[in-house]
Amino acid sequence: MKIDPKTALQRCDTVMLDMDGTILDLAFDNYVWRELVPQRYAASRSMPLDAAQAQLFGLYGAVKGDLEWYCLDHWSERLDLDIVGLHHDVSHRIGYLPGAREFLRELADSGKRVLLVTNSHQDTLDLKDAVTGLCDFFEGSYSSHAYGHAKERQAFWHALQEEVDFDPATTLFVDDTQRVLRSAEEYGISGLVTVTRPDTSEPGRNGSAYAGVESLPELL
């Protein structure tokens, strides 16, 4: 059942926010994985870019939703590229989604418990925090890599529960990935909202089973 985004904050005690595509513009990550990595991979192997993209997209798809998909160490070893270095090379592209920083400022004064809950690898999280300062707005940041399970898996939520002791019935969770939201719903989290335009370089998404907002300020 879809909740009303306009009253979701009033009804919760704990707010959990995803990072990429929820707070930060997914255009950065999409550029890195769809364009930059294929360019460097093609150059390192003297192969056409379209062939490199086809090969890489096949590799991505094979592990999408698993922890390996989000793991920079995995891809550095698998592709023999400095994936962390590539992220640093284009860190100027990292930025907030429209209104997200202002939303976090207001949320910090709301008295709610605010947690960052992300599949981001710790190296990426550290880089994005250094560029944006986003972790200053949260009581704590929790990466799936610390638990060995992606947010798409029930084991992640059980591990997070053990660490932060949240009540699923009074928790609002905002994410842009449908498989993650389904996993949170299966765990029992009642307040679920999806961001419908996680990448500002692309059109908005339609057809989610969850209540949608184009940007976080719509929750205020």
What does this structure look like?
The chain has 220 residues and is an alpha/beta fold. The protein folds into two domains: 5-26 and 96-219, 3-Layer(aba) Sandwich (Rossmann fold), CATH 3.40.50; 28-92, no CATH class. The chain has helices at 5-8, 27-45, 49-63, 67-70, 72-79, 83-89, 100-108, 122-132, 154-164, 178-187; strands at 14-17, 113-118, 140-143, 171-175, 191-195, 211-213. It has a six-stranded parallel sheet with strand order 3-2-1-4-5-6, covered by helices on one side. The longest helix has 19 residues, at 27-45. The chain is globular, with a radius of gyration of 17 Å.
Please give a handful of descriptors for the protein shown.
globular, 2 domains, 220 residues, 6-stranded parallel β-sheet, 6 strands, alpha/beta, Rossmann fold
Describe the secondary structure blueprint for this structure:
Elements: H1 5-8, E1 14-17, H2 27-45, H3 49-63, H4 67-70, H5 72-79, H6 83-89, H7 100-108, E2 113-118, H8 122-132, E3 140-143, H9 154-164, E4 171-175, H10 178-187, E5 191-195, E6 211-213
Parallel strand pairs: 1-2, 1-4, 2-3, 4-5, 5-6
Helix pairs in contact: 2-3
User: What number is the mean pLDDT?
Assistant: 96
Order of helices and strands: HEHHHHHHEHEHEHEE
Q: Radius of gyration from the CA trace?
A: 17 Å
Q: Helical percent range?
A: 40-55%
* Lateral strand order in the biggest sheet: 3-2-1-4-5-6
The low-confidence runs, each spanning 5 or more residues with pLDDT under 50, are none
Outline: globular
User: Mind describing the biggest β-sheet?
Assistant: 6 strands, parallel
Based on the coordinates given, report the CATH architecture of the largest domain: 3-Layer(aba) Sandwich
